[in-house]
Design a protein that fits this description.
Helix content: 40-55%
CATH superfamily of the largest domain: Lactate dehydrogenase/glycoside hydrolase, family 4, C-terminal
Distance between the termini: 37 Å
Number of helices: 9
Strand content: 15-25%
Largest sheet: 6 strands, parallel
CATH architecture of the largest domain: Alpha-Beta Complex
CATH topology of the largest domain: L-2-Hydroxyisocaproate Dehydrogenase, Chain A, domain 2
Shape: globular
Strand order of the largest sheet: 3-2-1-4-5-6
């Protein structure tokens, strides 16, 4: 049976996700957007690229949620993009209403789907999607840690002059300025990163990782990142559809893990056919725990603001 993924939002991130899925021939893809013609045009363009890529994925663009029915995975990318000088938090209430509307319509047609949230502020929008969908916690997953870790690995590999494939790393916490890149758990082919790069270099890379999204926004001026976020979603979808059980850092709903209750926070999880199949709890040093608490508190503040709007 052919698998189906719906991508909500035909903007740069949504289009990057759709194209990545089709190029890897992971599933048939439906792209939905409120703007007439845009998802149809982009879908047709991607479909015409499939013979070149050697992919038989079917790609459809639509404005009608009925066309998204029976999706295995729904990827929520729709929302206002960040602009220069705008924090992820500024997007909070605007994107809350968008996510509520999109998710409520999508889950009516695909009640058994797994939901991957990409809209910002990521951790808070996961909360909105979770409450709106009524799905079990294993079926609502936030894409943040995969992207943040990819940025971290990129900068580390560049500084160490090694292959990115040899860099193993994790970033915990909320998707924002308070994220916690774990240098103590970072290695190059098993060699601790602290044996390769000095503390000053590592500290600078940690800060650049935290500012990774804002750095791209500053360059682009009229938008935010999309190639790396798109690739991160594709890796998550592949792990779920192929039941690969990859251990990836994702935003997950915690109920006691890391001392957190009732919030989505970026942690290492096992991604398989059922969505989040396991949450891994790492032993954290005092400074790491303090950093994570700061990140969790920042997420909690946003969720408190949203609570009146989640009914």
């Amino acid at each position: 049976m052919r698998r189906k993924v719906t991508v909500i939002g035909a903007g740069n991130v949504g289009a990057s996700v759709a194209l990545g899925l089709a190029n890897k021939e992971l599933a048939d893809v439906t792209i939905i957007d409120i703007v007439e013609g845009v998802p149809q045009g982009k879908a047709l363009d991607m479909l015409e690229a499939c013979p070149v890529e050697g992919s038989d994925s079917k790609i459809v663009g639509t404005n009608d949620y009925a066309d998204t029915a029976n999706s295995d995975i729904i990827v929520q990318t729709a929302g206002f993009p960040r602009k220069p000088g705008m924090s992820r938090d500024d997007l909070l209430l605007k994107n809350c209403e968008i996510v509520k509307s999109c998710v409520s319509q999508a889950v009516k047609h695909s009640p058994e789907a797994i939901l991957i949230v990409v809209s910002n502020p990521l951790d808070a929008m996961c909360q909105v999607a979770y409450k709106t969908s009524g799905f079990s916690k294993n079926r609502v997953i936030g894409m943040a840690g995969v992207l943040d870790t990819a940025r971290f690995r990129t900068f580390l590999a560049e500084a160490a002059d090694v292959s990115v494939e040899n860099v193993n790393a994790f970033v915990l916490g909320g998707h924002g300025d308070t994220m916690v890149p774990l240098t103590r758990y970072t290695s190059v082919a098993g060699i601790p990163i602290s044996s390769i790069l000095d503390k000053a270099t590592l500290d600078a890379i940690v800060q650049r990782t935290r500012d990774g999204g804002a750095e791209i926004v500053k360059h682009l001026k009229t938008g935010s990142a999309y190639y790396a976020p798109g690739a991160a979603v594709v890796e998550m979808v592949e792990s779920i559809l192929k039941d690969k059980k990859k251990v990836l850092p994702c935003a997950a709903y915690l109920e006691g893990e890391y001392g957190v209750n009732g919030l989505f926070v970026g942690v290492p999880v096992k991604l398989g056919a059922r969505g989040i199949e396991q949450i891994y709890q790492l032993e954290l040093a005092a400074d790491e725990q303090a950093g994570l608490k700061k990140s969790i508190d920042a997420v909690g503040e946003l969720v408190n603001i949203l609570e009146p709007h989640l009914g």
